[in-house]
Inverse folding.
């Protein structure tokens, strides 16, 4: 049992730190959920790619460094410690790419992987529907076969699509066989958001920005070349991304370590605030998350896999994130309510607080995660809650 | 970097499981609580043969030469089985503080206990110990029982001691390190007790029926049990990290983080396990009380949550240094 890094790993972290120190924008970028902010974040993706830091764990042919899991976590820690911008390319890199690597055709890999690493192609996820949030198997949007043109016709509506307001393309599930069982007869499609028949309607979030959108499909044609995996096999294909989103890849520990560092600074600057215990507890939990990540990395290196354990990660980080921000607001006192430039000097705690509130909801609500933990990890019996398997 | 128990540690943990089961499992603790020490003493002797009583004594001094990581792995198993006896005192706290002759006796299996002011002011299981000590004013005193006392935990029988005889002066640093080692062992035991409480609760939830279905089908219980799983899962790596950091620059705060997280996780496990069991869990004859007791009592000794939070605050908050 040890946490020692090899000299090569230490050198890798040092190289990342040096590059980030030189390139991270001195002033925080505007929110990526605004038009200007989105464009600025897109440019940052290009800068990252130029430096070779966009996708460190990917193969070199797609712009990566072939880095191992340990190096990936080290890079993430450096990234957040440096206060670097949130990744607008995250949907593509973290959610879609693992599926493309596993299920995509060589042609799809060629066409899409490189382009998502430098910000030239930004992806939106299109999972949820008005009647299907965490219960993805309830999807009703349809895909109808068009033999003549060699593709499919999409109809229906997607909602809560993160980044969709300004992204280039989307990915999501559609019901291609209406007679099949809930989890079957779904197909995974990739589509341009400016295709004929698509209407994107931005939705203002709790924080006022348009971080997500509704997408309406009115006889949208998608060629066979943009079906990911086998038709009808979309559920199985998509589930590997859902695991990813909940698990290791979406929330590296660096994010919470950095937020905790900022919280400690905030507490230090407001000595009248009596929140020491809450700050200490946040620090302990961020440490726990960091160390559990190293434990998971070790398990994966031993040949193990991260399955339902990703649900524990998701519950833990999302609630930690809310708690960190609630503590910050208590320390800020009456100033916690302020938004905009006046609040800038305290580091956007109010904005980030609103964002943290989405954590226990998205990527499968924490109630769903707790069911998964209870049933798949603890082995408790299913059923009894009106849920069909 | 490999942040997981080694094969040797896993094997040692399994050996402990086998030995405890062979000696009666949870019956050992139930009998200990009823003043019948025979099985508990037999287990101790068996552990001495395995080398456990000399776990942290260097090989050149006749011990097992184990690391603090070994200690964390071992004490999680002791907590899981609710093994009774002053193991923290004899194996984690005292070996570094006693003279060479006494250390030899500890390695050979002598049961020892100690009262440490203010971290653990009542000595555990003094009735069963042949070596009694009291620590005060940075000195280790031989001691004798003044009066017995009860504990929140039925398997922990306490006593207040009186110092007598010649004291051995201790360095502040070696005393602090021994106390941290005891806190680490307690944290590991709490993880083990919490895991056992969760196992007991999950097993019961699968078989206990109400309204015609196993209670484990009800989401209200599922979610409580899932929260216990999450709390224990994220507390354990803090304990492992504390074992690695023990005695190093950031060792103190690492131990404190481990003790707090393990205490909170075990306390949650205790509350949920009792709730899942219902009234049957609230009875003396049910073995659940063994781990409930540990989860209630161990957070209070070897540094309370307040003690450990204050230590972390001094370390991470600028200007808080004492």
């Amino acid at each position: 049992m040890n946490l020692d890094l090899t000299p090569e790993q230490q050198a890798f972290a040092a190289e990342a730190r040096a590059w980030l120190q030189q390139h991270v924008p001195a002033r925080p970028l505007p929110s990526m959920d605004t038009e200007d902010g989105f464009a600025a974040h897109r440019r940052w993706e290009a800068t990252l790619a130029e430096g070779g830091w966009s996708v460190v764990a990917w193969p070199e042919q797609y712009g990566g460094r072939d880095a191992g899991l340990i190096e990936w976590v080290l890079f993430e820690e450096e990234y957040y410690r440096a206060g670097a911008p949130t990744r607008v390319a995250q949907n593509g890199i973290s959610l879609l790419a693992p599926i493309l690597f596993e299920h995509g055709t060589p042609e799809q890999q060629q066409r899409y992987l490189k382009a998502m690493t430098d910000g030239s192609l930004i992806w939106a996820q299109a999972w949820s529907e008005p009647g299907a949030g965490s219960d993805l198997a309830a999807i009703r949007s349809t895909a109808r076969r068009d033999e003549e043109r060699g593709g499919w016709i999409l109809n229906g509506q997607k909602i809560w699509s993160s980044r969709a307001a300004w992204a280039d393309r989307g990915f999501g599930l559609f019901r291609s066989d209406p007679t099949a069982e809930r989890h079957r007869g779904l197909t995974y499609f990739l589509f341009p958001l400016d295709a004929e028949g698509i209407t994107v309607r931005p939705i203002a979030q709790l924080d006022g920005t348009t971080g997500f959108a509704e997408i309406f499909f009115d006889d949208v044609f998608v060629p066979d070349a943009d079906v990911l995996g086998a038709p009808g096999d979309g559920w199985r294909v998509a589930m590997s991304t859902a695991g990813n989103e909940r698990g290791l890849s979406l929330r590296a520990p660096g994010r919470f370590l950095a937020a905790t560092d900022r919280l400690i600074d905030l507490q230090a600057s407001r000595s009248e605030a009596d929140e020491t215990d809450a700050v200490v507890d946040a620090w302990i939990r961020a440490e726990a998350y960091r160390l559990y990540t190293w434990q998971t990395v070790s398990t994966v290196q031993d040949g193990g896999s991260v399955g339902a354990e990703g649900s524990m990660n998701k519950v833990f980080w999302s609630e930690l994130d809310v708690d960190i921000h609630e503590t910050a607001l208590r320390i800020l006192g009456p100033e916690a309510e302020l938004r905009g430039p006046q609040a800038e000097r305290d580091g956007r705690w109010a904005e980030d607080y609103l964002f943290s509130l989405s954590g226990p909801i998205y990527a499968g609500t924490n109630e769903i995660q707790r069911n998964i933990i209870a049933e798949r990890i603890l082995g408790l019996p299913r059923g009894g809650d009106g849920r069909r398997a | 970097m490999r942040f997981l128990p080694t094969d040797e540690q896993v094997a040692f943990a399994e050996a402990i499981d086998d030995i405890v089961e062979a000696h009666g499992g949870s019956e050992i603790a139930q009998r200990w609580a009823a003043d019948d020490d025979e099985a508990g003493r037999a287990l101790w002797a068996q552990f001495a043969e395995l080398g456990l009583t000399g776990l942290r004594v260097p090989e050149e001094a006749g011990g097992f030469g184990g690391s603090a990581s070994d200690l964390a792995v071992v004490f999680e198993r002791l907590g899981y089985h609710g093994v009774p006896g002053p193991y923290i005192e004899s194996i984690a706290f005292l070996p570094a503080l006693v003279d060479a002759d006494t250390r030899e006796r500890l390695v050979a299996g002598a049961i020892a206990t100690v009262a440490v002011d203010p971290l653990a002011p009542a000595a555990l299981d003094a009735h069963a110990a042949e070596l009694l000590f009291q620590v005060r004013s940075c000195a280790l005193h031989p001691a004798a029982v003044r009066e017995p006392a009860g504990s929140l935990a039925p398997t922990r029988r306490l006593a207040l001691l009186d110092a007598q005889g010649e004291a051995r002066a201790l360095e502040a640093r070696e005393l602090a390190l021994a106390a941290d080692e005891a806190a680490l062992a307690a944290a590991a035991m709490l993880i083990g007790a919490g895991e056992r409480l969760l196992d007991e609760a999950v097993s019961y939830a699968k078989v206990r029926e109400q309204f015609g279905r196993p209670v484990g089908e009800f989401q209200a219980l599922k979610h409580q049990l899932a929260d216990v799983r999450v709390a224990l899962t994220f507390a354990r790596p803090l304990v492992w990290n504390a074992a690695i950091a023990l005695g190093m620059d950031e060792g103190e705060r690492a131990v404190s983080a481990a003790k707090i997280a393990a205490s909170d996780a075990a306390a949650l496990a205790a509350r949920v396990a009792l709730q899942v069991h219902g009234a049957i869990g609230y009875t003396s004859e049910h073995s659940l009380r063994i781990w409930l007791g540990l989860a209630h009592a161990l957070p209070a000794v070897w540094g309370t949550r307040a003690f450990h939070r204050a230590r972390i605050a001094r370390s991470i908050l600028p200007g808080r240094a004492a």
Notes: The mean pLDDT of chain A is 90. Residues 153 and 211 of chain A are 27 Å apart (CA to CA). Strands of chain A lie at 123-126, 142-146, 151-162, 169-175, 186-192, 198-203, 212-223, 227-228.
